[in-house]
Specification:
Blueprint lengths: L2 E9 L3 H19 L2 E6 L4 H7 L5 H8 L3 E6 L14 H11 L4 E7 L12 H4 L3 E7 L11 E4 L4 H6 L4 H11 L8 E4 L6 H17 L3 E6 L5 H17 L4 E6 H10 L6 E4 L1 H15 L8 E3 L6 E2 L18 H13 L4 H16 L2 E2 L11 E2 L2 H14 L3
Parallel strand pairs: 1-2, 1-3, 3-12, 5-10, 8-9, 8-10, 13-14
Antiparallel strand pairs: 4-5, 4-11, 6-7, 11-12
Helix pairs in contact: 1-12, 1-14, 8-9, 10-11, 12-13, 13-14
The structure holds nicotinamide-adenine-dinucleotide, 3-isopropylmalic acid (IPM) and manganese (II) ion.
The site of manganese (II) ion has 2 residues, from α11.
């Protein structure tokens, strides 16, 4: 196959700027490598709320479903922060992940030599770090019910939760009749994982680890949370049976947060739940030097994957040509590798990113004082990568 349908989701904030830069890079790549990407844009996030009053409209879903792959920038912004939950940009992102079945999110944090000094950590700590965080993406406290903010007394609970599960009602009832809650507002989200959800992410992680350094660290909070105890039990079951050659270890999330900074080279592949993975991957970005460098791949059982940077819409720098487009460009490389089976072209993109850093170009987030590098904006960085893509030897 040499022609692909790609849906682009520019989203909000810096999203459109980094998407424009990445489109230029992909245009240079297709021209050089003799294949076609038919790219059409669709709405998500705040942009979709403004246009369609829905953060992920049905037509965007259909367009994604009829594509070979999806490239997403980022969503969110102050403008929508006071909206009701279902009319927030973040709800559109979660809806997209759920509707496309994207249960596995691969977040590689690979330290590039050129950027060692961009990290706030010491050179010897970050040099050579290559960690892959496998984050579960469609479960956990993000999607658990019941959830909400309410003022309730014990009697109203049965009506509110209307659950068919007597155990659940019992648990919540017990919780809510504690006198500190009565007549006051309560906020609640249910952290819940089913064993099949855990097993399938463990399989992805086992597979990823077996193709990397052969080491998997599962991160949980099994010392406190029942949901985490189940997580640990199921990960052990799957790994023992299906990946006996992968070295499995377990770590509590608080310790993992510390160990990632203390000595990140102890990690090869990490597997963890949705919320722990969200937090740990942002932390891991500082090993690399900037959140603006971290790509990700969100993949499901079948259908197109979504390739998205780990960062958000960076409203503090949006519209100023300050954003680093490299996380999105590297996400496009992951798209070529994982969804389009174009490893060679993915290599070209990744090598071009390294080459642009070798040339000494830096956006503000990765620029150091007196590093002798040239400070560039998002547009110039994108153009420079595109120029290299057209000429680089592989
Ligand atoms: P953020 O990731 O947008 O920004 C955190 C910090 O990193 C900011 O200082 C920002 O300027 C910087 N940064 C992020 N990406 C950058 C880039 N490419 N180049 C240079 N600097 C970059 O996180 P936040 O400020 O907590 O959230 C802002 C909005 O983004 C919120 O609405 C949030 O919900 C949303 N968000 C969306 C996603 C997503 O679309 N996947 C991810 C995280 C946050
Ligand atoms: C991310 C973001 C999202 C998440 C938010 C915006 C819903 O932080 O993609 O990492 O928490 O998954
Ligand atoms: Mn996040």
């Amino acid at each position: 196959k040499d022609s692909y349908q790609i849906t682009l989701l520019p989203g909000d904030g810096i999203g459109p700027e980094i998407m424009t830069a990445t489109k230029g890079v992909l245009a240079a790549l297709t021209k050089r490598c003799n294949f076609e990407l038919h790219m059409t844009e669709a709405l998500i996030g705040g942009a979709a709320i403004d246009a369609k009053n829905d953060p992920f409209p049905e037509e965007s879903l259909q367009q994604c479903l009829s594509s070979d792959s999806v490239l997403l920038s980022c969503i969110g912004g102050y403008k929508w922060d006071a909206n009701p939950r279902e009319l927030r940009p973040e709800s559109g992102l979660l809806k997209m992940r759920k509707q496309l079945g994207l249960f596995a999110n691969l977040r590689p944090a690979k330290v590039l030599d050129q950027l060692i000094d961009a990290s706030t950590l010491k050179r010897e700590v970050v040099e050579g770090v290559d960690v892959m965080v496998v984050r579960e993406l469609t479960g956990d406290v993000y999607f658990g019910t019941p959830k909400g903010i309410d003022v309730v007394d014990g009697k109203e609970l049965y009506i509110l939760f209307g659950s068919s599960s007597l155990t659940l009602i019992h648990h919540i009832h017990t919780f809510i009749t504690d006198s500190i809650f009565l007549g006051k507002r309560v906020g609640y989200n249910n952290m819940i994982y089913g064993e099949d959800e855990i097993a399938r992410i463990a399989r992805v992680a086992g597979d990823v680890a077996s193709k990397r350094g052969g080491k998997l660290c599962s991160v949980d909070k099994a010392n406190v949370l029942d949901v985490s105890q189940l997580w640990r039990d199921v990960v052990i079951e799957v790994m023992t049976k299906e990946f006996p050659n992968v070295e499995l270890s377990h770590m509590y999330v608080d310790n993992a947060a510390m160990q990632l900074i203390r000595w990140p080279k102890q990690f090869d592949t990490i597997v963890t739940g949705n919320i722990f993975g969200d937090i740990l991957s942002d932390e891991a970005s500082m090993l690399v030097g900037s959140l603006g460098m971290l790509p990700s791949a969100s993949i499901g059982v079948s259908g197109p994957g979504v390739f998205e940077p780990c960062h958000g819409s960076a409203p503090d720098i949006a519209g100023k040509d300050l954003a680093n487009p490299l996380a999105l460009i590297l996400s496009a490389a992951m798209m070529l590798r994982y969804d389009l089976d174009r490893a060679e072209e993915a290599d070209i993109l990744e090598k071009s990113v390294e080459a642009v850093l070798d040339k000494g170009l830096r956006t503000a987030d990765i620029k150091q004082e007196n590093d002798g590098c040239k400070l560039v904006g998002c547009i110039e960085m994108g153009e420079a990568v595109a120029a290299i893509v057209s000429t680089i030897d592989c």
